[in-house]
Amino acid sequence: MLTKFLFLQIVGLFFKLIVAEWNTQDYERREHSLTKPYQGSSMSVPYWDFLGSTIVTSNYVRLTPDLQSKSGAIWNTVPCYTRNWEVQVQFKVHGRGKDLFGDGLALWYVRDRMQTGPVFGSKDYFYGLAIILDTYSNHNGAHNHQHPYISAMINNGSLHYDHDRDGTHTQLSGCEAKFRNYNHDTHIYIVYKDDTLIVSTDLEGKNAWKECLKVENVLLPTGYYFGASATTGDLSDNHDIIAIKMYELDLLETQNRDEDRSHIIPSAASFEAPRDRVEDAKPAMSGIKTFLWMMAVAIVIIVIVVLGIMWYQKRQEQSRKRLY
Ligand SMILES: *[C@@H]1O[C@H](CO)[C@@H](O)[C@H](O)[C@H]1NC(C)=O
Ligand SMILES: [Ca+2]
């Protein structure tokens, strides 16, 4: 009796999961998505505008080629009025560089679209969310993490993205992620639901999401735009977007359908503790310098010991003399 009950429970749960899975699929929003074939009947791509070096082929949208000093972006033309959403981006970063490559790309949910600027090809002091896939470490000193590196930043227009520190002073959270030069598909998955931001990746071609970062109490307004941008400098890479799929997620029971979220100022309750604020350590002493330094210390110690022995012997002699 009990096992039968449990069995039914498990079967029920299983079906619920499948239906939940289907539901999310049902809510794909075409007007915020970019999928093949990209071009409509005309040369333009429905719902997306292009900037800079971006080119569209039948298989990918290339934001930058593997050439120096390029910058490109794509911007959704329709503002997003969905409160809870998820965005899956299939991308490909690849190039000839084995050890030297850059600079990276950024995915955006921001107020101002189609603006060029220094933050991976887009505007600094932005309003909204940036997910940054930074391939090149601009920081010369020891970093607390390796590159490529994925991080999240929320801005209300007041914060500057500091390339010299790879944005570590303004990031909410981040993770190391090797995403370059794979033959299989690479994906990043951004969920904004219940004021919680979760970024996951699928980089190993295993069809499994791996959590990169999770931040609670993130406030983002509705009415912002999705976009992607990339840039190259002295170093370069191909930065390709293969697909963007945006899904509307159901409102939670605690969320009010009529609440106006359009005037919210982007904010996050917790920033990651600032890192690397200490200046870079002075370069270590060279081998010869260290050797000479140790020699000097050794000589001083020997002299002190010899003087000590001489003083001790003299004292012994004096006390012996006194005895006689
Ligand atoms: C904007 O963000 C900065 C840094 O987090 C904060 O100090 C400031 O109070 C914020 N301004 C508004 C209007 O929320
Ligand atoms: Ca960097």
Mean pLDDT: 88
What share of residues is helical?
10-25%
Oligomeric status: single chain
Q: Quote the distance from N terminus to C terminus.
A: 110 Å
Q: Ranges with pLDDT <50 over ≥5 residues?
A: 277-281
CATH topology of the largest domain: Jelly Rolls
Write the CATH architecture name of the largest domain.
Answer: Sandwich
Task: Supply the CATH class of the largest domain.
Answer: Mainly Beta
Number of domains: 2
GO molecular function: D-mannose binding; metal ion binding
Subcellular location: Endomembrane system; Golgi apparatus membrane
Pfam families: Lectin_leg-like
Organism: Diatraea saccharalis
What does this structure look like?
Helix content is 19%, strand content 30%. It has 324 residues and is of the alpha+beta class. The protein contains two helices and 16 strands. The protein has two domains: 19-268, Jelly Rolls; 287-312. The relative contact order is 0.18. The structure holds 2-acetamido-2-deoxy-beta-D-glucopyranose (NAG) and calcium ion (CA). 2-acetamido-2-deoxy-beta-D-glucopyranose binds at residues 156, 158-159, 265, 267. Residues 1-20 form the signal peptide.
Provide the fold topology:
Blueprint: H1 2-26, E1 48-52, E2 55-56, E3 61-64, E4 71-76, E5 85-94, E6 104-110, E7 127-134, E8 149-156, E9 173-176, E10 186-193, E11 196-202, E12 210-215, E13 218-219, E14 225-231, E15 238-248, E16 267-268, H2 287-323
Antiparallel strand pairs: 1-4, 2-3, 3-15, 4-14, 5-10, 5-15, 6-7, 6-14, 7-8, 8-9, 10-11, 11-12, 13-16
The chain binds 2-acetamido-2-deoxy-beta-D-glucopyranose and calcium ion (CA).
